[in-house]
Specification:
By secondary structure, the chain is an all-alpha fold. Helix content is about 65%, strand content about 0%. The protein has 11 helices and no strands. Helix 1 crosses helix 2 and helix 7 crosses helix 8. It is elongated, with a radius of gyration of 20 Å.
């Protein structure tokens, strides 16, 4: 048996089968420890599975049995934070009622994502630095909602146009880009206003009509 036969990397465990019957509190404790480390670290790349295991006093193998990989842990942590955002959108509560203009719903949705990312910037930074973010179910959900509001606002569109527009709107919410704009003098209010205007334009409202709408 080689010296490395029991080595488990941060990317993949030898056994990725999730152990059944683990008390939920144990998983929560591991996620809370990871969340704290990401918030305190100079950069997300410094937070390893070894560090997380040590912080919550479990073996590294326990983390892998619970989450499969570091990416799996990040995904689980993202899920615990984004569930409330999803519920507020999918419940149809204001400003997401069906009788609200789709342009208004789109602007409110993007503003909600912006606020969410800033509130959880340490986690989002770790996620957006990693591979596969565009294939994650959470991003695909945000993409689908954005695309739907665009389609509802404009109606008939060339194939793929709404999807392209949705991707570009979400790309402008990359946490590194937002933080760079803030650090270079743009206020959060300025960013939010520009983002709302862009959302209305993307969903079929002309600039002159937008000025009229936001005054009412």
């Amino acid at each position: 048996m080689s010296p490395d036969s029991h080595y488990i990397s941060d990317h993949k465990s030898e056994n990725q089968v999730v152990r059944r019957g683990r008390p939920p509190t144990a998983t929560i404790r591991m996620l809370e420890a990871a969340d704290t480390l990401f918030a305190q670290a100079d950069g997300p790349e410094r937070v390893t599975m070894d560090a997380i295991a040590a912080a919550c006093s479990v073996g590294k193998g326990t983390l892998f049995r619970a989450f499969g990989s570091r990416a799996g842990l990040l995904d689980a942590l993202w899920r615990t934070k984004i569930d409330a955002l999803r519920e507020s959108v999918e419940s149809g509560a204001p400003p997401f009622r069906q009788n609200t203009l789709p342009q208004e719903r789109l602007a409110a949705f993007l503003d909600l994502i912006l606020t969410f990312k800033l509130d959880n910037r340490h986690l989002i930074r770790a996620l957006e630095l990693g591979p596969g973010i565009l294939q994650s179910p959470h991003y695909r959900w945000m993409l689908g909602v954005t695309e739907r509001f665009i389609e509802e606002g404009i109606g008939s569109l060339p194939e793929g146009a709404a999807l392209y527009a949705a991707h570009t709107l979400l790309a402008a919410l990359h946490i590194d880009l937002i933080e760079d704009m803030l650090s270079n003098g743009l206020s959060l209010d300025t960013i939010r206003e520009a983002q709302a205007r862009r959302a209305y334009m993307a969903a079929g409202i002309a600039a002159a009509d937008y000025k009229t709408l936001v005054r009412t």
